[in-house]
Write a structure and sequence with these properties.
Blueprint: H1 11-17, H2 23-33, E1 41-45, H3 51-58, E2 62-67, H4 70-79, E3 84-87, E4 100-106, H5 114-124, E5 125-138, H6 148-156, E6 187-198, H7 199-207, H8 217-234, E7 239-252
Parallel strand pairs: 1-2, 1-4, 2-3, 4-5
Antiparallel strand pairs: 5-7, 6-7
Helix pairs in contact: 1-7, 7-8
Length: 254
């Protein structure tokens, strides 16, 4: 999460199109951390429009969502009854010391500065608490996705601009812990899952990506038309099967 958000203009598309996370991921989070989510206090950082915050709340956690983008946070509040919400950054968490059992980053750790964010996470976690970072990673070799990342690079004129390299196109996720805490072990679980969505839902998902926010509108429209045509060759009924690997990494506070 950067100190200025690229997502201010993307809140509606994000809320409409981004996937949730499979139940198995939250089961694994409890197993790896040794703590139940029910009754736990969770800071969900870089919470976006509240997708993961709501799922954590459904598991019985008391959730405080922390988000840098005001439009994203407003969308979250409107859709997430029972979830607390605060404007803030991972690099300076607006939370008390030793106040939460979990700090979670869903599709967000690649925006942080680990040298700033990791000490903040350690500060607000209770002893034995856990940092959990997770991503939905599209199956890159699914026939309908072949060549997609190269087309994105062509559209952007290079690689997407993330805050760090924890995840990127064609790259396995990882949790960068910065220089002070690099020796903490990271426990990883991966879960395969799928969802089926209308073709235009998939197009909206593409439009919710931070890296398209600065693309000139006519170029973006032409790109999306090309993507529609490609999708229709694979899904002539207009229903797209999206295949994901949900990647979870858990680090426990000493």
């Amino acid at each position: 999460m950067a100190e200025s958000s690229k997502f201010d203009t993307l809140a509606s598309a994000y809320a409409k199109s981004r996937p949730t996370y499979p139940d198995a991921l939250f089961d694994a989070l409890q197993d790896l951390s040794g703590r139940a989510l029910s009754g736990a206090r969770v800071a969900d950082v870089g919470a976006g429009t509240g997708i993961s915050s709501r799922q954590l709340r459904e598991r019985g956690a008391a959730v405080t969502a922390v988000e840098l983008s005001e439009p994203m946070l407003r969308q979250l509040v409107s859709q997430s009854p029972g979830v607390g919400a605060v404007l803030g950054s991972a690099n300076a968490l607006p939370l008390r010391e030793d106040s939460v059992d979990f700090v979670t980053f869903a599709q967000a750790w690649h925006w942080v500065n680990p040298d700033l964010a990791v000490p903040e996470v350690i500060r607000v976690l209770k002893p034995g608490g856990a940092l959990a970072c997770f991503w939905n990673m599209p199956l890159a070799d699914a026939p309908w996705r072949l060549g997609y990342n190269d087309r994105i690079r062509e559209l952007l004129g290079g690689e997407p601009d993330y805050g760090n390299e924890s995840t990127a196109l064609d790259q396995e996720p990882r949790i960068e812990l910065g220089s002070r805490f690099a020796d903490l072990p990271v426990h990883v679980v991966e879960t395969a899952w799928t969802r089926t969505v209308p073709l235009e839902h998939r197009i909206t998902n593409v439009m919710s990506r931070s890296y398209v926010s600065d693309v000139e509108p006519d170029r973006l429209a032409a790109f999306l038309d090309r993507e529609r045509a490609i999708l229709l060759t694979h899904f002539p009924d207009g229903m797209v099967v999206e295949e994901y690997t949900a990647w979870l990494g858990v680090v426990r506070r000493p």
